[in-house]
Model the fold of this input.
Amino acid sequence: MDIIPIKTRIVQPPKDNIYDILDGLELQEKDVLLVTSKILAIHQGRTIPVSEVKDKDELIKKEAEVFIPRGECPGEYVILTVKNSTLIPSAGIDESNADGYYILWPEKPEKEAKKICKYLKKRNNIKKLAVIITDSHTTPLRWGVMGISTGFFGLNPLKDYRGTKDIFGREIKMSQSNIVDALAVMGVLAMGEGDERKPMAIARGVENIEFTDKETYEDLLIPTKEDIYYPLLKKFDKTGRKK
Done:
């Protein structure tokens, strides 16, 4: 498997069409294209000048589905939020590499991934292609950021081991491999967090991917009250919910 980061021109806020970059990609059958949420948000014009925002906390709460107030977070560095079924600080709003703008998360990234995927399949005359929208993400009890998917299209997100046997013949009852987030982690690592200017990457030669033209985004998501982490997640309902 190869992860190939793509160096591009600067994608400039407040709005910048990224299809000229997509047109320059050399894609093959069974490639997976990883695209950062940031350049997709800029493509959509999901940006706000920092100078026009009087209260960032109110902007975060507006963008979030639920939140835990800043005062309850250690150091008061962030408002902890859930957005698009993802636990994320500050509703994903970012100021890095943003040239004086707040970059919001893109709207309906799974729909944009579908649009990009279908466009690139036709342009490159290929039948099997997937697109994953990525962002940096922190992990509880661990320093540092890694990647997570915020939307995707073109593949089944899970490899299901339930009903199969382990190496000692014991039936596996719960395990499913999360393919899209695993690829997002590798893509974000290859793309970098600073001035690399590599907001896209191609995952090539990935085994065990089931490509599809169906919309499979919802297959990845767990209803909150069925999640094993619900004893922690229910804290959000006791603190703040978007009105």
Observations:
- The mean pLDDT is 94.
- Helices lie at 19-23, 37-44, 56-63, 109-124, 179-191, 230-233, 235-239.
